[in-house]
Amino acid sequence: MQAKIMNIVGTLLFAINQWVQVILITRLLGLYEVGLFSYFLALTGPLVLFSRFMLSVLVPTQRKLSYDYVIFQEFRRITNYAFIAGSVIVMIFVDLNMYESLCLMVFVLYKCYENKEEFIYTENIAESRIDFMARSKIYKSIITIILFTVTAFFFRSLLLAVLSLLVSQMLIYYFYDRRFSYSEQRAKIGIKRIEFRNIFILGIGLSMVEVLNSLVSNIPRYILEHYHSVETLGVFATILYFMIITNNIVVAINQSVVAGLAKEAQASVKKFYRSFFRLCGIFLVIIIAGEAILLLFGNDILVLVYGEAFMGYQNEMLLLGILLIFTVYTKLFEMALSIFNIYNLQLLLQGTTFIAAVIFSFIIIIPYGLTGAFIVVIINYMILAAGQVGVLVYHWKYKVGS
Questions:
Q1: Once rounded to an integer, what is the mean pLDDT over residues 171-194?
Q2: Is the distance from CB of 94 to CB of 150 less than 8 angstroms?
Q3: Which of 107, 123, 128, 155 has the alpha carbon at shortest distance from 7?
Q4: Nearest CA among 189, 65, 73 for reference residue 122
């Protein structure tokens, strides 16, 4: 229990670290720079998720393979190279000047090392060693906050600010994370073509789910940047960061319980659902408290954190409150579906949501701008949640009720 609490604390600190980055870029560099930073996230997000291949869920829950961690590490190394190559191709086709392209390239290298670290997290999640992951997040957050704050305050440069993220990530990876890697301590045996194929086939469905999920989240960003302005995207991304923080917290809790829930699911489906419903109830209490704070003080918090330029976004904060509810439960439902290895239906759900995101983005965001972007994101999450609930009800009926 102490390790799980530490992991939640570490994730909260990591979320605060990411929030500090957005605040400092907004206040010290400007809305254009924070919009550009958000654009980098949107461009690389789908590639990052595909390169990770959701091994953090696949390795602890998969039952068909019995490969050593070294094999999975080799698989990640290859997909990481593919991530860099894909990012370079993206850079060729996006409209960025030389300085912005250099910023993006440094950002890609930062994400590359983050992928390396994420696999070490995966190994420790599979071994139920949550305490290491918690400490890593805490140490990295402290280092990043210090370096990023000093860099942004003294140099007022987006390039150097992003470079500080890369330096922080490399420091924690080489001087702390690698000491807790199982695969780093074992002999390198290389990955065979059939092993790569087997992992690819097993994980491609879940990986595409995450890629589509990222695209669903980022399509409104692309539309805002293209049809409105980078500054409008900056406002959207800044307010939406409350949702990202919430998502990180849910992911941290999921990481803490996924191995245990997977074992319960193997032993008894009824036992799993009892624990899962209890987890949903706990989140409901947290959501009610959070919604009350958001409705009463949301706009005041927005102005206090980001400045007077964010006065008058009450409607967007109300929409954000609705969005947070769906953020929490879609992530919980996604974990449940993954534990039962229901990947193909998740792919179908995300594919449907992706199509809806494209259609509604053009219909709503182009004429209504910022407010329209929030409405589109809510519609997307509503469609996804409805589909997830339908699949879980079907699973309950035929796995538990039968």
A1: 87
A2: no
A3: 128
A4: 73
